Fold this protein.
Amino acid sequence: MSPVSGEGENEDDVKRRVDRIRQLAETLRFNTDRTFHGKVHHAVDEYFRSTGRQKRGGWQIYIKSCVILACFFLSYFLLVFLAQNVWQGLVLAIILSSSITAIGFNIQHDGGHQSFSDHRLVNRLAAMTMDLVGASSYMWHWKHAMFHHNYVNIAGYDPDIDLGGLGRLSPHQEWLWFYRWQHLYMWVLYGLLVIKWQLFDDFKNLITGRIYRHRMPRPKGTDLLIFIAGKLSFVTLAFVIPLFYHPPGAVVFFYLVTVLTMGVPLSIVFQLPHCMERADFPLPVGDTGLMENPWAVHQARVTLDFDRHSPVRTWLLGGLNFHIEHHLFPGVCHTNYPGISKLVEEVCRQAGVKYAEHPSIWTGLAEHYRWLKKMGMPDHIRGLQQ
Protein backbone atom coordinates (compact mmCIF):
# COMPACT_ATOMS: atom_id res chain seq x y z
CA MET A 1 0.00 0.00 0.00
CA SER A 2 1.24 3.48 -0.83
CA PRO A 3 1.95 5.68 2.18
CA VAL A 4 -0.35 8.33 0.76
CA SER A 5 -3.27 5.98 0.35
CA GLY A 6 -6.26 5.46 2.60
CA GLU A 7 -7.55 2.15 3.86
CA GLY A 8 -10.07 0.50 1.53
CA GLU A 9 -8.63 1.80 -1.76
CA ASN A 10 -7.92 -0.78 -4.43
CA GLU A 11 -4.66 -0.78 -6.39
CA ASP A 12 -6.11 1.26 -9.27
CA ASP A 13 -7.43 3.89 -6.83
CA VAL A 14 -4.02 4.08 -5.18
CA LYS A 15 -2.21 4.46 -8.51
CA ARG A 16 -4.56 7.20 -9.69
CA ARG A 17 -4.22 9.05 -6.40
CA VAL A 18 -0.42 8.86 -6.40
CA ASP A 19 -0.33 10.02 -10.02
CA ARG A 20 -2.54 13.00 -9.19
CA ILE A 21 -0.30 14.00 -6.30
CA ARG A 22 2.80 13.74 -8.46
CA GLN A 23 1.21 15.83 -11.19
CA LEU A 24 -0.37 18.50 -9.00
CA ALA A 25 2.03 18.98 -6.09
CA GLU A 26 5.65 19.94 -5.88
CA THR A 27 7.95 16.99 -6.31
CA LEU A 28 8.97 15.60 -2.94
CA ARG A 29 9.92 12.02 -2.14
CA PHE A 30 10.29 10.08 1.08
CA ASN A 31 12.89 7.46 1.93
CA THR A 32 11.58 4.17 0.53
CA ASP A 33 12.46 1.98 3.53
CA ARG A 34 9.09 0.45 4.49
CA THR A 35 10.23 -1.59 7.50
CA PHE A 36 8.44 0.46 10.16
CA HIS A 37 5.45 1.02 7.89
CA GLY A 38 5.06 -2.74 7.42
CA LYS A 39 5.41 -3.53 11.13
CA VAL A 40 2.86 -1.01 12.32
CA HIS A 41 0.35 -2.03 9.64
CA HIS A 42 0.86 -5.71 10.48
CA ALA A 43 0.17 -5.04 14.18
CA VAL A 44 -2.99 -3.06 13.45
CA ASP A 45 -4.24 -5.54 10.84
CA GLU A 46 -3.80 -8.31 13.40
CA TYR A 47 -5.81 -6.26 15.91
CA PHE A 48 -8.75 -6.11 13.51
CA ARG A 49 -8.47 -9.80 12.67
CA SER A 50 -8.42 -10.83 16.34
CA THR A 51 -11.18 -8.49 17.54
CA GLY A 52 -13.49 -8.71 14.54
CA ARG A 53 -13.96 -4.93 14.61
CA GLN A 54 -14.71 -3.00 11.43
CA LYS A 55 -12.00 -0.69 10.13
CA ARG A 56 -14.60 1.72 8.79
CA GLY A 57 -18.08 2.61 9.98
CA GLY A 58 -19.94 0.68 12.65
CA TRP A 59 -22.89 1.37 14.91
CA GLN A 60 -20.86 3.56 17.28
CA ILE A 61 -20.17 6.28 14.73
CA TYR A 62 -23.66 6.07 13.23
CA ILE A 63 -25.38 6.58 16.59
CA LYS A 64 -22.91 9.32 17.49
CA SER A 65 -23.62 11.10 14.21
CA CYS A 66 -27.38 10.99 14.81
CA VAL A 67 -26.92 12.54 18.27
CA ILE A 68 -24.66 15.30 16.95
CA LEU A 69 -26.92 16.16 14.00
CA ALA A 70 -29.97 16.20 16.29
CA CYS A 71 -28.17 18.67 18.59
CA PHE A 72 -27.29 20.82 15.58
CA PHE A 73 -30.81 21.05 14.15
CA LEU A 74 -32.48 21.40 17.56
CA SER A 75 -30.16 24.18 18.76
CA TYR A 76 -30.54 25.98 15.42
CA PHE A 77 -34.34 25.77 15.62
CA LEU A 78 -34.44 27.00 19.20
CA LEU A 79 -32.01 29.84 18.50
CA VAL A 80 -33.80 31.14 15.40
CA PHE A 81 -37.44 30.55 16.32
CA LEU A 82 -37.82 30.37 20.12
CA ALA A 83 -35.04 32.33 21.87
CA GLN A 84 -36.62 35.22 23.78
CA ASN A 85 -33.63 37.21 24.99
CA VAL A 86 -29.89 37.71 24.56
CA TRP A 87 -28.92 35.27 27.31
CA GLN A 88 -30.99 32.44 25.87
CA GLY A 89 -29.53 33.27 22.48
CA LEU A 90 -25.96 33.17 23.78
CA VAL A 91 -26.44 29.75 25.38
CA LEU A 92 -28.07 28.33 22.26
CA ALA A 93 -25.42 29.90 19.97
CA ILE A 94 -22.66 28.22 22.00
CA ILE A 95 -24.51 24.88 21.86
CA LEU A 96 -24.94 25.35 18.10
CA SER A 97 -21.25 26.20 17.78
CA SER A 98 -20.28 23.07 19.71
CA SER A 99 -22.58 20.96 17.52
CA ILE A 100 -21.05 22.31 14.31
CA THR A 101 -17.56 21.69 15.68
CA ALA A 102 -18.57 18.14 16.60
CA ILE A 103 -19.92 17.62 13.06
CA GLY A 104 -16.50 18.60 11.71
CA PHE A 105 -14.52 16.40 14.10
CA ASN A 106 -16.76 13.33 14.07
CA ILE A 107 -18.73 13.16 10.81
CA GLN A 108 -17.13 15.27 8.11
CA HIS A 109 -13.55 14.36 9.02
CA ASP A 110 -14.14 10.61 8.81
CA GLY A 111 -16.26 11.00 5.68
CA GLY A 112 -13.56 13.06 4.01
CA HIS A 113 -10.98 10.38 4.80
CA GLN A 114 -13.28 7.60 3.52
CA SER A 115 -13.42 6.02 6.99
CA PHE A 116 -17.01 6.80 7.98
CA SER A 117 -18.37 3.83 6.02
CA ASP A 118 -17.41 1.04 3.64
CA HIS A 119 -19.67 2.70 1.05
CA ARG A 120 -18.31 5.54 -1.07
CA LEU A 121 -21.67 7.35 -1.29
CA VAL A 122 -22.14 7.33 2.49
CA ASN A 123 -18.63 8.74 2.93
CA ARG A 124 -19.43 11.44 0.39
CA LEU A 125 -22.61 12.41 2.24
CA ALA A 126 -20.75 12.49 5.57
CA ALA A 127 -18.06 14.72 4.05
CA MET A 128 -20.75 17.04 2.66
CA THR A 129 -21.90 17.96 6.17
CA MET A 130 -19.03 20.46 5.94
CA ASP A 131 -20.75 22.12 2.96
CA LEU A 132 -23.93 22.37 5.03
CA VAL A 133 -22.18 24.54 7.62
CA GLY A 134 -20.37 26.80 5.19
CA ALA A 135 -16.99 25.31 4.22
CA SER A 136 -16.26 23.36 1.06
CA SER A 137 -15.61 19.63 1.48
CA TYR A 138 -13.92 19.68 -1.94
CA MET A 139 -11.37 22.30 -0.89
CA TRP A 140 -10.88 20.53 2.46
CA HIS A 141 -10.05 17.30 0.63
CA TRP A 142 -7.18 18.94 -1.23
CA LYS A 143 -5.89 21.16 1.56
CA HIS A 144 -6.13 18.65 4.42
CA ALA A 145 -6.37 15.10 3.13
CA MET A 146 -3.95 15.55 0.24
CA PHE A 147 -1.48 18.33 1.00
CA HIS A 148 -1.36 18.44 4.81
CA HIS A 149 -1.41 14.68 5.34
CA ASN A 150 1.29 14.04 2.79
CA TYR A 151 3.62 16.89 3.75
CA VAL A 152 3.08 17.39 7.50
CA ASN A 153 5.32 20.09 9.06
CA ILE A 154 7.45 20.49 5.93
CA ALA A 155 7.91 24.22 5.37
CA GLY A 156 6.92 25.23 1.86
CA TYR A 157 4.75 22.13 1.42
CA ASP A 158 2.32 21.85 4.36
CA PRO A 159 -0.37 24.57 4.07
CA ASP A 160 -1.41 24.13 7.71
CA ILE A 161 1.81 25.61 9.09
CA ASP A 162 1.82 28.67 6.84
CA LEU A 163 -0.23 31.56 8.22
CA GLY A 164 0.25 33.87 5.27
CA GLY A 165 2.66 36.19 7.08
CA LEU A 166 0.44 36.61 10.14
CA GLY A 167 2.53 34.32 12.32
CA ARG A 168 5.37 31.82 12.41
CA LEU A 169 4.88 28.16 13.30
CA SER A 170 8.04 26.61 11.86
CA PRO A 171 11.71 27.49 12.55
CA HIS A 172 12.29 27.41 8.79
CA GLN A 173 9.88 30.28 8.11
CA GLU A 174 10.88 33.92 7.78
CA TRP A 175 10.81 35.96 10.98
CA LEU A 176 9.06 39.36 11.16
CA TRP A 177 9.33 41.81 14.01
CA PHE A 178 5.68 41.65 15.13
CA TYR A 179 5.90 37.90 15.71
CA ARG A 180 7.32 38.81 19.13
CA TRP A 181 3.70 39.08 20.27
CA GLN A 182 2.23 36.14 18.37
CA HIS A 183 1.85 34.09 21.56
CA LEU A 184 -0.75 36.71 22.56
CA TYR A 185 -2.52 37.71 19.35
CA MET A 186 -2.58 34.27 17.71
CA TRP A 187 -5.50 33.15 19.88
CA VAL A 188 -7.61 35.95 18.41
CA LEU A 189 -6.63 34.91 14.88
CA TYR A 190 -7.58 31.32 15.69
CA GLY A 191 -11.06 32.60 16.51
CA LEU A 192 -11.34 34.12 13.02
CA LEU A 193 -10.51 30.83 11.27
CA VAL A 194 -14.08 29.83 10.45
CA ILE A 195 -15.09 33.25 9.08
CA LYS A 196 -12.03 33.26 6.84
CA TRP A 197 -12.79 29.74 5.69
CA GLN A 198 -16.47 30.34 4.95
CA LEU A 199 -16.27 33.76 3.33
CA PHE A 200 -12.82 34.00 1.73
CA ASP A 201 -10.54 30.97 1.42
CA ASP A 202 -12.87 28.67 -0.53
CA PHE A 203 -13.62 31.37 -3.12
CA LYS A 204 -9.94 32.33 -3.45
CA ASN A 205 -8.99 28.68 -4.01
CA LEU A 206 -11.77 28.27 -6.56
CA ILE A 207 -10.67 31.33 -8.54
CA THR A 208 -6.92 30.69 -8.42
CA GLY A 209 -6.98 26.90 -8.73
CA ARG A 210 -4.35 26.77 -6.00
CA ILE A 211 -4.15 25.94 -2.33
CA TYR A 212 -1.04 27.44 -0.78
CA ARG A 213 1.77 26.66 -3.27
CA HIS A 214 0.02 23.63 -4.70
CA ARG A 215 -2.04 23.49 -7.86
CA MET A 216 -5.37 21.71 -7.66
CA PRO A 217 -8.11 20.96 -10.19
CA ARG A 218 -10.99 23.41 -9.95
CA PRO A 219 -14.29 21.65 -9.11
CA LYS A 220 -16.41 20.74 -12.11
CA GLY A 221 -19.74 19.02 -12.66
CA THR A 222 -21.11 17.48 -9.48
CA ASP A 223 -18.26 18.87 -7.38
CA LEU A 224 -19.00 22.41 -8.53
CA LEU A 225 -22.72 21.90 -7.97
CA ILE A 226 -22.06 20.73 -4.40
CA PHE A 227 -19.77 23.72 -3.82
CA ILE A 228 -22.45 26.19 -4.95
CA ALA A 229 -25.29 24.38 -3.16
CA GLY A 230 -23.25 24.25 0.03
CA LYS A 231 -22.54 27.99 0.02
CA LEU A 232 -26.20 28.74 -0.70
CA SER A 233 -27.39 26.45 2.10
CA PHE A 234 -24.95 28.10 4.50
CA VAL A 235 -26.08 31.63 3.58
CA THR A 236 -29.72 30.55 3.86
CA LEU A 237 -29.29 29.00 7.31
CA ALA A 238 -26.92 31.63 8.71
CA PHE A 239 -28.54 34.79 7.34
CA VAL A 240 -31.64 34.49 5.12
CA ILE A 241 -33.94 32.54 7.45
CA PRO A 242 -32.90 34.40 10.64
CA LEU A 243 -33.49 37.76 8.91
CA PHE A 244 -37.19 36.92 8.57
CA TYR A 245 -37.49 36.80 12.38
CA HIS A 246 -34.74 39.05 13.77
CA PRO A 247 -33.16 42.45 13.01
CA PRO A 248 -29.91 42.43 11.00
CA GLY A 249 -27.79 43.46 13.97
CA ALA A 250 -28.96 40.48 16.02
CA VAL A 251 -28.38 38.08 13.13
CA VAL A 252 -24.81 39.29 12.61
CA PHE A 253 -24.12 39.26 16.36
CA PHE A 254 -25.19 35.66 16.87
CA TYR A 255 -23.43 34.56 13.69
CA LEU A 256 -20.21 36.03 15.09
CA VAL A 257 -20.74 34.41 18.49
CA THR A 258 -21.25 31.03 16.81
CA VAL A 259 -18.25 31.13 14.46
CA LEU A 260 -15.82 32.82 16.85
CA THR A 261 -16.41 30.14 19.49
CA MET A 262 -15.79 27.50 16.82
CA GLY A 263 -12.49 28.88 15.58
CA VAL A 264 -10.36 28.39 18.70
CA PRO A 265 -11.21 24.71 19.38
CA LEU A 266 -10.89 23.85 15.69
CA SER A 267 -7.47 25.51 15.54
CA ILE A 268 -6.00 24.07 18.71
CA VAL A 269 -7.08 20.50 17.99
CA PHE A 270 -5.03 20.59 14.79
CA GLN A 271 -2.16 22.69 16.21
CA LEU A 272 -1.46 20.76 19.41
CA PRO A 273 -0.31 17.62 17.56
CA HIS A 274 2.14 19.40 15.22
CA CYS A 275 3.27 22.86 16.34
CA MET A 276 5.34 22.00 19.39
CA GLU A 277 8.92 21.78 20.62
CA ARG A 278 8.78 17.96 20.51
CA ALA A 279 7.46 17.77 16.95
CA ASP A 280 10.01 17.65 14.15
CA PHE A 281 10.08 20.17 11.29
CA PRO A 282 12.24 18.31 8.73
CA LEU A 283 13.23 19.52 5.28
CA PRO A 284 14.33 17.68 2.14
CA VAL A 285 18.03 16.88 1.96
CA GLY A 286 19.71 19.71 0.07
CA ASP A 287 17.99 20.33 -3.25
CA THR A 288 17.29 16.64 -3.89
CA GLY A 289 13.61 16.75 -2.92
CA LEU A 290 14.25 13.60 -0.82
CA MET A 291 13.19 13.37 2.82
CA GLU A 292 15.59 11.57 5.13
CA ASN A 293 12.88 9.46 6.81
CA PRO A 294 10.31 7.11 5.29
CA TRP A 295 6.74 8.41 5.18
CA ALA A 296 5.44 6.45 8.19
CA VAL A 297 8.43 7.39 10.37
CA HIS A 298 7.97 10.99 9.32
CA GLN A 299 4.31 10.95 10.41
CA ALA A 300 5.22 9.67 13.88
CA ARG A 301 8.04 12.18 14.34
CA VAL A 302 5.99 15.26 13.37
CA THR A 303 2.86 14.34 15.35
CA LEU A 304 1.90 14.09 19.02
CA ASP A 305 -1.12 12.61 20.76
CA PHE A 306 -2.83 14.48 23.59
CA ASP A 307 -5.22 13.65 26.40
CA ARG A 308 -5.49 9.98 25.39
CA HIS A 309 -7.05 8.94 28.70
CA SER A 310 -10.16 11.14 28.52
CA PRO A 311 -13.07 9.21 26.98
CA VAL A 312 -15.23 12.34 27.07
CA ARG A 313 -12.80 14.42 25.02
CA THR A 314 -12.10 11.44 22.75
CA TRP A 315 -15.85 11.25 22.02
CA LEU A 316 -16.22 14.98 21.44
CA LEU A 317 -13.04 15.38 19.36
CA GLY A 318 -13.67 12.46 17.05
CA GLY A 319 -10.55 10.67 18.27
CA LEU A 320 -8.31 13.45 16.99
CA ASN A 321 -6.48 13.44 20.33
CA PHE A 322 -5.07 10.12 18.98
CA HIS A 323 -3.38 12.07 16.24
CA ILE A 324 -0.42 9.80 15.53
CA GLU A 325 -2.84 6.94 14.94
CA HIS A 326 -4.92 9.17 12.67
CA HIS A 327 -1.94 10.19 10.53
CA LEU A 328 -0.72 6.62 10.18
CA PHE A 329 -4.22 5.24 9.53
CA PRO A 330 -6.41 8.03 8.11
CA GLY A 331 -8.69 5.47 6.46
CA VAL A 332 -9.56 3.80 9.79
CA CYS A 333 -12.66 5.05 11.62
CA HIS A 334 -11.77 7.19 14.64
CA THR A 335 -13.75 4.94 17.00
CA ASN A 336 -10.88 2.43 16.64
CA TYR A 337 -8.05 4.79 17.62
CA PRO A 338 -8.13 4.13 21.39
CA GLY A 339 -7.91 0.39 20.71
CA ILE A 340 -4.92 0.56 18.36
CA SER A 341 -2.97 3.31 20.16
CA LYS A 342 -1.06 1.00 22.52
CA LEU A 343 -0.11 -1.23 19.58
CA VAL A 344 1.19 1.76 17.62
CA GLU A 345 3.11 3.01 20.66
CA GLU A 346 4.68 -0.42 21.22
CA VAL A 347 5.76 -0.79 17.58
CA CYS A 348 7.28 2.70 17.73
CA ARG A 349 9.19 1.79 20.89
CA GLN A 350 10.51 -1.46 19.40
CA ALA A 351 11.52 0.26 16.15
CA GLY A 352 13.18 3.20 17.90
CA VAL A 353 10.70 5.67 16.40
CA LYS A 354 9.64 8.61 18.52
CA TYR A 355 6.14 8.40 20.00
CA ALA A 356 5.22 11.49 22.03
CA GLU A 357 2.08 12.73 23.74
CA HIS A 358 0.71 15.48 25.95
CA PRO A 359 -0.72 14.01 29.18
CA SER A 360 -3.65 16.43 28.96
CA ILE A 361 -5.07 19.04 26.66
CA TRP A 362 -3.91 21.69 29.13
CA THR A 363 -0.27 20.64 29.00
CA GLY A 364 -0.61 20.64 25.23
CA LEU A 365 -1.96 24.18 25.25
CA ALA A 366 0.88 25.30 27.50
CA GLU A 367 3.48 23.73 25.19
CA HIS A 368 1.88 25.29 22.12
CA TYR A 369 1.93 28.69 23.86
CA ARG A 370 5.63 28.26 24.59
CA TRP A 371 6.27 27.26 20.98
CA LEU A 372 4.49 30.35 19.66
CA LYS A 373 6.59 32.48 22.00
CA LYS A 374 9.81 30.76 20.95
CA MET A 375 9.02 31.09 17.23
CA GLY A 376 8.34 34.78 17.82
CA MET A 377 11.94 35.38 18.90
CA PRO A 378 14.57 36.30 16.26
CA ASP A 379 17.22 34.04 17.80
CA HIS A 380 15.26 30.92 16.77
CA ILE A 381 15.69 31.13 13.01
CA ARG A 382 16.96 28.52 10.63
CA GLY A 383 17.41 29.37 6.96
CA LEU A 384 14.28 28.67 4.94
CA GLN A 385 15.16 25.83 2.64
CA GLN A 386 12.95 25.03 -0.34
Remarks:
- The chain has one domain: 11-375.
- Residues 11-375 form one domain.
